[in-house]
Amino acid sequence: MKNSLLYLVVLVLAFFIISASSCHKEDPIPDLVPITTTGANTMGFYVDGVPHNKKGIYSFGNPDGVSWGKYADGKINFWGGGGEPRGYLSISFYEVLGTKLFLLSKLSTTTGLGEFIDDVPLGGNEYYTNENVTGTLEILRLDEHVIAGTFDIHLQNPNIGKIVHLTDGRFDIKQ
Questions:
Q1: How many domains does the chain have?
Q2: 82: region left, alpha or beta (phi > 0 left; psi from -120 to 50 alpha)
Q3: In this structure, is residue 57 part of a structural domain?
Q4: Which domain holds residue 66?
Q5: Is residue 3 part of a domain?
Q6: Per-residue pLDDT tens for 4-29?
Q7: Of 13, 22, 46, 81, which is most buried by a Cβ count within 10 Å?
Q8: How far apart are CA 105 and CA 4, in angstroms?
């Protein structure tokens, strides 16, 4: 009887120890910057499944970071560079009041253009959207100081025909 009781106590203690040790699970560290609309100066996306994050303010002398500009003709361009792995992404489109969703193909008054250069310091391979290889851009916020949104793009190298896919794209940039 004593052995059975001792066996039961050990079994119950082992159960509680195992249960207690498995209660706290670490949350996985996200591999892309979060989707925000606060002017966080971030951009993140996957290139064929590989995460790319761009953070900080892009400027002359600091190619790591993000920036954007709006031109007199209504064209808006935002871009991000640097980070590991290295790469440069630029997206251009014309502002159309009331429009939040844009097709990225060839730049026109109704469609935008995407460009990605991998491994910028070495010249890299250049990829572009075109009539057949396209993407989408959704603007979540656009005002005088902040542009934020999401994108999903296929781009093609015009010389070799290779296509890359940029997925789960997000950007939040303050001037």
A1: 1
A2: left
A3: yes
A4: 28-174
A5: no
A6: 665 665 555 555 555 555 555 565 66
A7: 81
A8: 75
